[in-house]
Amino acid sequence: ARVQALARRAYPADVAHPTQFGPYRFDPDGRHVDFGAQRVALKGREYAIAQHLFRHEGQLVTRQQLHQLFWPAMPHMETRSLDTHISQLRSKLQLGQVQGPGHAPLPPSRFVLQVVYGTGYRLERQ
pTM for the full model? Predict the structure, then answer.
């Protein structure tokens, strides 16, 4: 019941229309994200995790919170599944940090998914 209440608050039923976060446009009907000239199809859990992170932009989202929301049947189980989903999101939505010489500066609406070591993740606008 607690998890369902959290999910209802995190994902209100009246949000059935596309949602925009900077250049990222989330379409709940097709479970895909448009940004720039790209359309990226996401799996169910990837889409839900990405939308949760974007809705909590700039805030620390703990691993425990993500496990409770998206793996309610096994909230205390240590698994690498979350790490795999985060890695896929970074790759598909280009949320990694570009570093080193020779790289163009980041556009102002660019997002980066940062790891807060031992705690969770934070999505930051660069």
Answer: 0.77
